[in-house]
Write a structure and sequence with these properties.
alpha+beta; Thiol Ester Dehydrase, Chain A; single chain
């Protein structure tokens, strides 16, 4: 499991100081990106190969609100790896451990010009396999 720290800024909240629901999607996206980076895979490397990961499906369950200035931890775990897709389980927790949000995210590898599914490049697939 990979964990990425996030601080809730004022811009992440609504008028009541509570994190706007769509911002959880940004938090979990950043955690997936930083997870790839921690494995030595940069998004620019994917772009150079003409491929990218796009979110195909998200199941987001909001359990408790995060608030302005909270320190959060966003986790990222691969639950399924296929030739052209990766399924993640992700959680957003307060630093004290309180679970705020759970998500299941299916990311598909696509040819960016054709926007059609393609196999994850072998070098990247091997890096992901070695990490799970």
């Amino acid at each position: 499991m990979y964990t990425w720290p996030v601080r809730v800024y004022y811009e992440d909240t609504d008028a009541g100081g509570i994190v706007y629901y769509a911002n959880y999607l940004k938090f979990i996206e950043r955690a997936r990106t930083e997870w790839l980076r921690s494995l030595g895979v940069e998004q620019c490397q994917l772009l150079e190969e003409g491929v990218g990961f796009v979110v195909r499906k998200v199941d987001l369950n909001l359990l408790s609100p995060a608030r302005f200035n909270d320190e959060l931890e966003v986790s990222c775990t691969v639950t399924r790896l296929r030739n052209a897709s990766v399924m993640f389980q992700q959680q957003v927790r307060r630093k004290n451990g309180d679970l705020l949000c759970e998500a299941h995210v299916l990311a598909a590898c696509v040819n960016l010009n054709a926007m059609q599914p393609v196999a994850i490049p072998r070098s990247i697939l091997e890096v992901i396999r070695s990490a799970i």
